[in-house]
Amino acid sequence: MMEQIFYGYFENAQETEPAYEPPRDAPCPFCGKPVSSDDVRTHNLIHGDRTYAQRGYFYRTHRTCAEKFGSLSMDGFILDMIARNGD
């Protein structure tokens, strides 16, 4: 199975390091170009489904893309991906 490149997660609130962290240069879900440290925004998500609710999810985009398009437009896409992948 291929590693998930768009989102990572913490198994519980006590973790200080993610259980899974996507590559730091993963593609921005908005534009597809690699995210870089000089233009990055981390978005945190809580999945409402009881199956996934124990985990804290996050994904990264370009800061400039998030400001241009708004993160809410991508949150649903990422949450659907989490459910589809069974993560």
In short:
The protein has 87 residues and is α+β, with helices and mostly antiparallel strands. 24% of the residues lie in helices and 18% in strands.
Name the descriptors:
single chain; 87 residues; alpha+beta
Structure write-up:
By secondary structure, this protein is α+β, with helices and mostly antiparallel strands. The chain has one domain (7-85). It is built from two helices and three strands. It has a three-stranded antiparallel sheet. It starts with 6 loop residues before the first strand and ends with a helix.
Order of helices and strands: EEEHH
Q: What is the first-to-last residue Cα distance?
A: 13 Å
Strand order of the largest sheet: 1-3-2
- Percent of residues in helices: 10-25%
Structural class: alpha+beta
Question: Low-confidence parts lasting 5 or more residues at pLDDT below 50?
Answer: none
**Tally of discrete structural domains:** 1
Mind describing the biggest β-sheet? 3 strands, antiparallel
Residue fraction in strands: 15-25%
Q: What is the tally of helical segments? A: 2
Backbone shape: globular
Summarize model confidence as the mean pLDDT.
87
- Strands, total number: 3
State Rg.
12 Å
Secondary structure blueprint with pairings:
Elements (H helix, E strand, L loop, with lengths): L6 E4 L30 E6 L9 E6 L1 H7 L2 H14 L2
Antiparallel strand pairs: 1-3, 2-3
